[in-house]
Design a protein that fits this description.
Layout lengths: L12 H11 L4 E7 L2 E6 H17 L7 E5 L4 H12 L3 E5 L5 H11 L1 E6 L2 H10 L8 E4 L13 E3 H14 L3 H8 L5 E6 L9 E5 H14 L7 E3 L7 H14 L2 E4 L6 H8 L3 E3 L2 H16 L3 H22 L6 H22 L6 E4 L6 H9 L4 E7 L4 E5 L12 E2 L4 E4 L4 E5 L6 E2 L3 H7 L6 E9 L5 E6 L4 E2 L5 E2 L1 H9 L4 E7 L6 E7 L1 H10 L7 H5 L2 H18 L10 E6 L19 H7 L1 H7 L5 E9 L5 E9 L1 E2 L8
Helix pairs in contact: 1-2, 1-3, 2-3, 2-6, 4-5, 8-9, 11-17, 12-13, 12-14
Length: 649
């Protein structure tokens, strides 16, 4: 790992990548699986490709400060485009590849993007459709030419054509690339990452090279990252986490990143790569857990019982370890047998046997999910961060993992709690502000360099940060009981049958829940029992499915009895939504965070029915399809009442 990357000679990512290319030109920097074969690119090639793209942009009149929209799946060409843009003093603006046209239009227009470098025809079509309303967008460069042969728009250019133009430009300007790289400063804006927009339109967080370099390096040192790490780059490039792990830390530490063939092959590619360094938000861990549980349910009865026994054993042991207790002797004695028969094969099957450290962040993970994977022997840890902090604020250190905390601050980060209970932080990663939104910047930036996190939490005597929920979401029931919706929702989502849940209770007499079933897990469960269904809507309203989900709700209510503060926030009624919550319908963000305010408005009639005396409710909801068309789903939704769990005396 480089000793000092804050010197003038190494204060931007293009300078650091150039140093990698000079010092280790033949080391693998990035792999991509294409047509079933892993193709490798060295650090020497990484820089050469970025150089060609940068000079191609220069030939089109690219100016320092220009914005480049980057859209597509994780592809080497798009990471090279990020480096190329930064090399010329420009600012990459990555967008979520599954964004609908309206979402993409807002960001492209707001960011004032002159250029766009995209993956394929799908992204080209969206940008061509919105170009008339985004007058600053001049050129769209695409990588994959399939389906684009007949396109004649003058703004279109293939990546191969752009690189060829760059090579020609270099003949007359042999030092242009290096001269532009030398002009870069650590204080320059390195990227604009647009937030997910849970409470309104997305905001563009401006992060400098120094923000990202210092923070990413401090985290890498704290966790002892090595140049032989392998990471699977599968999360959206628009999400700041991918930018830090797959770009910033990869360049700083010089480890290899691996781009899966497609979103559909991620789990298969994960098994092939066997990463040593793995990050997944809670929704991915939930998905992995569902995969495990579905497979277990498909096993023969004896095998299912054996696996179930050893999984329960592992979780009991891990809970004891996390609580600082010494597990019983017979459990410790049986664990090696469980590792041989269950835990090792499961880690192999998931592709996580080689993992040295795995993280989860983005939102709170359910404690049951966390314990499950740690019980398998996977070193899963929580970190706490946000876009505006260049990701890292706290990390759980090895040997200091606790179930109820998100760790301690990384180097150079300071924490304090406001009188209102909000977590405040100060660090070298604090962003430069929101692009063209000074008012929003003033709302989060305080005097002395302190930042508001928006999260309610506290520091324990050992300095560990404990997050309760989003500060604005922690409320009370009508009777005064504290209500933290995310905490209850996470308990529900431990179930493989629950994909998403939204709990309601603020100023209400009791807590209710809107539930999304997991179609894969519940469909598998239904098929094994001969329950026929035609669609998600049909399956969700089957009486047998309500019985299944009621068992999960009752499990959550029993677990809440263990929490003296929240035991009065048990779920008393629930319904299963007739459709999945969808970012295209603005119900959740692209990072799958619930837009509570919007859901409260859209499903107001269902919510009121949950607090009435009816056992059914009619619902009509608008849905948006991938091609932008809209439709309407109508359903007769059941409402189920659940008795409160009582403490056993």
């Amino acid at each position: 790992m480089k000793a000092d990357v804050t010197t003038r000679e190494q204060d931007t990512f293009p300078k650091l990548a150039r140093a990698n290319a000079q010092q280790m030109p033949d080391r693998v920097a990035i792999r991509e699986k294409d047509y079933g074969i892993w193709q490798s690119t060295t650090w020497g090639d990484y820089l050469a490709q970025a150089r060609a793209i940068a000079l191609g942009l220069a030939s089109l009149g690219f100016r320092r400060g220009d914005k480049v929209a980057i859209v597509g799946d994780n592809r080497p060409q798009l990471y090279w485009a990020v480096l190329a843009t930064q090399a010329l003093g420009g600012v990459p603006v990555p967008l979520y590849q599954d964004s609908i046209e309206k979402e993409m239009e807002y960001i492209v227009d707001h960011a004032e993007a002159r250029f766009a470098i995209v993956e394929d025809q799908e992204q080209v079509d969206k940008l061509l459709a919105l170009r008339a309303r985004c007058p600053r967008l001049e050129t769209i460069v695409y990588d994959d030419p399939r389906g684009l042969r007949a396109y004649r728009d003058s703004c279109l250019l293939s990546l191969a054509e752009l690189e060829e133009a760059g090579r020609k430009f270099e003949i007359g300007h042999p030092t242009y690339f290096d001269d532009e790289v030398a002009r870069g400063h650590g204080e320059d804006v390195a990227i604009i990452c647009y937030t997910s927009g849970t409470t309104g339109v997305p905001k563009g967080a401006m992060l400098s090279h120094r923000n990202l370099i210092v923070t990413a390096l401090n985290a890498a040192r704290a966790e002892n990252l090595q140049a032989d790490e392998e990471i699977l780059s599968y999360l959206p490039m628009a999400w700041v986490g991918d930018h830090v792990f797959s770009y910033a830390q990869a360049i700083l530490v010089a480890f290899a990143i691996n781009c899966p063939e497609s979103a559909a092959t991620v789990l298969h590619d994960l098994r092939e790569i066997g990463p040593t360094y793995f990050f997944a938000p809670p929704r991915i861990w939930e998905s992995l857990l569902t995969t495990v549980m579905v497979r277990i349910e498909d096993c023969a009865w004896p095998k299912r019982k054996v696996v179930g026994f050893f999984l329960a054993l592992a979780q009991d042991l891990e809970r004891a370890r996390l609580a600082g207790q010494r597990p019983s002797g017979w459990r410790r004695a049986l664990y090696p047998l469980g590792r041989l028969l269950v835990y090792g094969p499961l880690r192999d099957n998931l592709g996580l046997r080689r993992v040295r450290r795995a993280y989860t962040a983005g939102e709170a993970i359910g404690p049951e999910i966390f314990v499950f994977f740690r019980g398998l022997g996977i070193n899963v840890k929580q970190l706490y961060g946000m876009t505006e902090a260049s990701v890292f604020v706290t990390i759980q250190r090895d040997g200091e993992v606790r179930l109820d905390s998100v760790g301690t601050p990384i180097e150079d980060v300071e924490l304090k709690i406001s009188p209102e209970g909000e977590v405040l932080y100060r660090s070298p990663g604090v962003f430069q502000g929101y692009f063209k939104n000074e008012e929003a910047t003033r709302q989060v930036m305080l005097e002395g360099g302190w930042m508001r996190s928006g999260d309610a939490g506290f520091l324990d005597p050992a300095g560990h940060l404990k997050i309760i929920d989003r500060a604005k979401d922690v409320t009370r029931l009508a009777g005064g009981t504290i209500f933290a919706p995310k905490y209850v929702e996470n308990k529900l989502k431990f179930s493989p049958y629950v994909k998403e849940a939204v709990c309601i209770g603020q100023d209400r007499p009791y807590v209710t829940a809107l539930v999304n079933i997991d179609l894969t897990a519940v469909g598998n469960w239904a098929e094994r029992r001969g329950i026929a269904y035609t669609s998600y809507t049909d399956l969700s309203q089957k009486p047998e499915i309500y019985e299944l989900i009621q068992q999960e709700v009752e499990r959550v209510n029993r677990s809440l009895l263990e929490d003296e503060v929240l035991k009065g926030a048990q779920i008393r009624k629930f319904l299963i939504l007739h459709k999945e919550l969808d970012p295209d319908d603005e119900e959740i963000t692209r990072t799958r965070k619930v837009r509570r305010g919007y859901i409260g408005q859209k499903y107001a009639a269902l919510i009121e029915a949950l607090y009435g005396d009816r056992d059914r409710a009619q619902v009509e909801a608008k849905v948006t399809y991938e091609d932008g068309r809209t439709g309407t789903i109508r359903a007769d939704v059941r409402i189920r009442e659940v008795g409160a769990a009582q403490a056993v005396r």
